[in-house]
Amino acid sequence: MPCRNGAPSQLPDRTTKNAMNIELLKEKSAWLRRELFEMVVRTRKGHFPSSSSCAEIVVALYYGGYLRHDPKAPRAADRDRLFISKGQAGMVLYPILADLGYVAKEELLKFARADGVFRLYPDPSIPGIEAITGSLGHGIGIAAGHALSAKRDGKKFRNFVILSDGECYEGSVWETALFAAHHGLNNLIVVIDRNGCCILDHTEKCLRLDPLDEKWKAFGWRVRAVNGHSYAEVTSALDEAVSGSTEQPLAIISHSVKGKGVSFMEDQPGWHNRMPDDAQIARARKDLSTNCIVN
Fold it and tell me: Which residues of 252-273 are buried (b: 16+ CB within 10 A; e: fewer)?
């Protein structure tokens, strides 16, 4: 399916999910990566590689019918919550929030500028953003608090978290993992963006995390491992997440590629904070215009 310059049309909800819907989701993630890249090169700020690796997850949540939300009522009490705990990737939501009508699309042109709504890191002053998560390892704890509150108040909203694998170096993550399992927070779904990279190097060179699935299981969580760029696998895991079929919190380990979509950035930790030059920008745009379809 060819790429389009703009965002694809609105998708049907997940109850009518079929092969065509998956193709539309693929178009959405290709569109999202192009928007993210242009935001970064326009202002010379932001983190494209970190955002790109979790594009399919957030597209599935918002356009696949898994996240209950209302752009006209972003603080509705019964909304599902999504926390981007890996704060450097908070910008992954900005094109989506603009596309869905939370914020004017013109605000994307002012990303990370003093006169704009969209800040470099997530901030609840932005409609559709739940919490400040610039300090890594905190988003999951905030989400667990919302999940426990919902349980005690008899509320049905779910709490999704996008957690980086590098955040699993933080003690606060494992404290929350114990807390969530103890309280049976089956309304808490954590997606670990397992792109294998942190700022300094690949995670297994810095401080080994594997076997990551066994660690989460040992802390009392149900665990699913998926290809984070395969909509068939991502939507299957999210189907389980919203099914209410378990009393355990769910951890989805999403194996992904940092910098997905730009060939010279893929799986390269050095691009975490680096900005491309003019020749690299041209090359990246070519990649993003032709590499539209993920698995």
Answer: bbbbbbbbbbbeebbbbbebbe
> How far does CA 243 lie from the centroid of its chain?
20
By residue range, what is the domain housing residue 249?
18-290
Please give the distance of CA 139 from its chain centroid, rounded to a whole number: 12
The CATH number covering residue 272 comes to 3.40.50.970
Name beta bridge partners: 159.
81, 188
**What does 215-284 look like in DSSP terms, one character per residue?**
HHHHTT-EEEEEETT-HHHHHHHHHHHTTT--SS-EEEEEE--TTTT-TTTTT-GGGSS----HHHHHHH
Cα separation, 82 vs 74, in Å, equals 12
- Residue the block writes with tokens 């970064």: 40
| CB of 189 closer than 8 Å to CB of 177 | no
What pTM was computed for the model?
0.92
Residue 120 within any structural domain of the chain:
yes
* Model confidence pLDDT, tens digit, residues 231-261: 999 999 999 999 988 899 999 999 999 999 9
